[in-house]
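Hey, can you fold this one?
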Amino acid sequence: MDQVQFRAFRGKIAYAQAFVRPPRRLRAGGIFVITPSRGLQPADYVLTAGVLGEFARVQIDTSNDAYRRPLDASARLVAQLAGKRAEVVLLGSIATGKYVDVLLEVFGDHLLFPSEFVGRGDMSRGGLMLRCARAGRELAYVPVRGAVRHGARPPRLEPLRRLSKQSG
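Sure. Predicted structure:
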């Protein structure tokens, strides 16, 4: 994973850890990562070189069964364990169907996303989540179904001040 992708992912994990409220029956702390070939995996899932190679060989496309089947199966398991009332917040891309199409079929109206994601790219979403996690500010969520998922680019985020090594 290159440095740019890691920074965006770091914001997602920090945000998810700050605001997750998993149902008791749901293991893995309620934070899951969408993988190219193994569906939803716990955020602390250990990646080996072999698994990374496997991921690299799978096209993330809803028409690709190697991607879609594991995602669908694991999402159904999460839905079953979480219960009918659980809300699932997607912190990934909402602009394309690569995640939304599969997850919406499983979670329906319980699939939510932060409304402030509209118009933002990966890095901007990651930066927004990192800022919110640090500030203790949870974003407002809206259902994916029927939502406006494309929009004008919002203003740039203010630069983050680096945390000193002494304070963290």
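The helical segments are 3-19, 49-56, 65-82, 97-107, 122-135. Let me know if you want another pass with a different chain boundary.
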